[in-house]
Amino acid sequence: MEKHELLVCRNTALGYEGRAVLSGLNLTVSAGDYLCVVGDNGSGKSTLMKGLLGLINPMEGSIDRAVELKNGAIGYLPQQTRAQRDFPATVYEVVLSGFLNQKGFGFFYTAAQKTAAIQAIGKLGILELKDRCYRDLSGGQQQRALLARALCAAGRLLILDEPVTGLDPAAAQDLYKTLRYLNEKEGMAVVMVTHDLRSALENARTVLHIGRNSWFYGTVEDYLRSPEGCRFRKGEQ
Amino acid sequence: MELMEMLAWPFMRRALVAGVLVSLCAALLGVPLVLKRYSMIGDGLSHVSFGALAVAVALGVTPLYFSIPVVILSAFFLLRLANSGSRMGSDAAIAVVSASALAIGIMVISLTTGMTTDVDNYMFGSVLAMTETDVLLAAAVCAAVLVLFVLFYHRLFAITFDENFARATGMRVELYNTLLSILTALTIVLGMRMMGAMLISSLVIFPALTAMRLFRSFRGVVLCAGTTAVLCFCTGLTVSYVKSTPVGATVVTANLLVFLLACGMERLRKRG
Known about the structure:
Chain A is an alpha/beta fold. In chain A, 36% of the residues lie in helices and 25% in strands. The N and C termini of chain A lie far apart (42 Å).
């Protein structure tokens, strides 16, 4: 594995109970990448996500991770659950919980972790919301809080699961802007599963399209010329 | 003076100590359970522990030794039910388990000893029920709950707030869930005979709901739930002594009043 590579899938098959949902997957995520995973419902996007996060093991092939990503140091932004939306916790409490995965975590947070949490909150521009209750925030602000937590969990890779679901268009654009900032200025690699194809293509550099029978993996420009991408463009018109 | 007179009775002292410990445990465990939408599990467990108690009495074994393993097993089972997207729907499945356990308990009692005051005591609790062993067990469970909440506080927070994230970062979510349900099972078995099978689950749910009305941070909610539960129990026990009302019902009523008060305060704060 090269030094700049974070995640490498080699001929990977993923699935449940012996039935493969995805197979023959070759995928490399390197430092600074911005990859969008798109595809129809039920095509295996969330299975791929589970595989990348290490929640399920590949049935065939392998998924290699950079050393720093082992022990769960992945900046994961899951889909929000209904129970979460009215949770009594301050933004600060939520963001700090990103540090729990770090190896050798004792029972309490260290002073350095507390400082880093404040920095992450500041990076996402929600410092004034630090002591506000999570359930009183807007959808976009909640996503920012969760993104700050993801930054605490990992320094180089963010994995996002449908991050703009339930956000109004302005908040969604805001989130994309933040992600682009983190990607370009902070050098974070971004892997995002999304339904919002148009915005994804405006922001991402590479695309993985998972179809039922065919799939595509390459740059955004190539994608728009490919049969899968053409189908998308027809749908747009 | 009533208070001194009340504490002169050994059974009242036992009831006070055991009750405070059980209420504290129930309230602390209630915070993650309520937030994770597992409140029904507490209710289910109390019915199962009623059934187990009835069977134990019929078999002539010491109730606690029989009901503790049975209730812990059902805690595992109910947790699985709550997490599985079963065809029945997890809430329906839990309701079925509760009602069945209750029915079996009542059947066993009426076929053996007959419906006596015993049933009444199991259902609605009796202040006389606490023995020395109960007090010791309550202290042990309470110590375990406190250790869990002090040392693993941040992990409990992460699992309660976002199970998926916790799992992705390599935390053993199932382990903590199991631990929570075992401790809940123990708390319910211990508290049930004093508070009553019908009422014990409200000790799990009420303090958490009250605290959620008043506090915005998780820490605040946990601390407030524990404090409210202990205060409500002490008030309830004293009132029940003075007015000769059943202790379980009195404590629950105290909890209800505090909850309504908290709702009112939340209203006022939102308006102001």
